[in-house]
Amino acid sequence: MVTLRQPAALCVVLCLCLCSVSGSYPKAQNVTWKSNNFKTFLTWEPEPSADYSYTVEYSVIGGNKQRNTHCIRSSAIRCDLTGSLSDLKANYTADVLSEPPQGAPSEPGEAVYSPSTRFCPYRDTNIGRPDFRLEASGDNRKITLHVVDPPTALFEGERQLNIRDIFADDLQYLVTYWKSKSTGKRVYKSKTSVIELTDLEKGKSYCFIVQAYIPSRTLDKQKGEESPIQCSADDNQSIFEVYSVGVIAAAFFLILLLIGIVIAIVVVCWKRRKNAQRNGREKVPQDV
Ligand SMILES: *[C@@H]1O[C@H](CO)[C@@H](O)[C@H](O)[C@H]1NC(C)=O
Ligand SMILES: *[C@@H]1O[C@H](CO)[C@@H](O)[C@H](O)[C@H]1NC(C)=O
């Protein structure tokens, strides 16, 4: 009986050992694309122990799997695929394989891997906040926004491409604007990067936010990050708009106070003088 049990136990132990060596590395989790202005990373978790590493394989959907030399048996938990996804309008997927550490021999059999979701650079990369300059016409009735198309991580030879180079006519800008100190917001869509707004009230200050807008994308990916707010100058502000009520009240009070002091001084002086005159008149007969 004993001799029968021992080989069975040995078999179980051997099997456990083999299983833990071949293909039982932890699977990558939370495999996610992170992409801004065409700078694209695949990220995942957790950090690997010294016992294993990760390799990334990517492909156009249905195409051959490829590897990026920087993401083979690496202990990093992200892979820069910016230069690898060269067909911007293609749909890509990637797998994160759990493999033996660098230098260790490969193992036969299926590697453990986690697949990513589908990613298309043209449709999915986030567009960062644009920068813009305000130019007001003489009477502030017309304001021109000069938007700088955000640069991307992509190059054509030496030249860095901006989002207009890539999206061309698909790129629009969304301008959200409102009269200073009012809440009513208006939105203007522009196909160009130089944007003229002409329906403004004369002499009023307006505030603007600009963001890229790509109507050909799905709804949740159409709008880029919002620029910081910029406001135009208000060239004929009344005194009540420039200073708060408190400041005006304080100034008014100060003026009243000054007038009061002046009146008090005048009255005191006048009384003294009158007294002096009376005393003088009273003295005169005494002297005589
Ligand atoms: C994956 O993401 C979830 C939710 O953000 C988090 O709770 C979990 O810890 C992550 N997994 C790993 C291995 O970090
Ligand atoms: C990529 O996928 C989207 C959505 O699944 C699809 O509409 C589009 O036609 C695909 N593009 C290509 C080039 O296969």
Structure explained in plain terms:
By secondary structure, this protein is α+β, with helices and mostly antiparallel strands. The protein has two domains: 22-124, Sandwich (Immunoglobulin-like); 131-242, Immunoglobulins (Immunoglobulin-like), CATH 2.60.40.10. The protein has helices at 2-21, 121-124, 163-167, 239-242, 245-287; strands at residues 29-36, 39-45, 53-60, 66-67, 78-80, 92-99, 112-115, 131-136, 143-148, 151-156, 159-162, 172-179, 185-190, 194-197, 206-213, 230-231. Strands 4-3-6-7 form a four-stranded antiparallel beta sheet, with no helix packed on it. Strands 13-12-15-16 form a four-stranded antiparallel beta sheet, with no helix packed on it. A three-stranded antiparallel beta sheet has the order 1-2-5, with no helix packed on it. A hairpin with a 5-residue loop joins strand 12 (172-179) and strand 13 (185-190). Residues 10-23 have low confidence and may be disordered.
Features:
288 residues; Immunoglobulin-like; 2 domains; four-stranded antiparallel beta sheet; 5 helices; 26% helix; elongated; binds 2-acetamido-2-deoxy-beta-D-glucopyranose; hemostasis; lipoprotein; signal; palmitate; glycoprotein
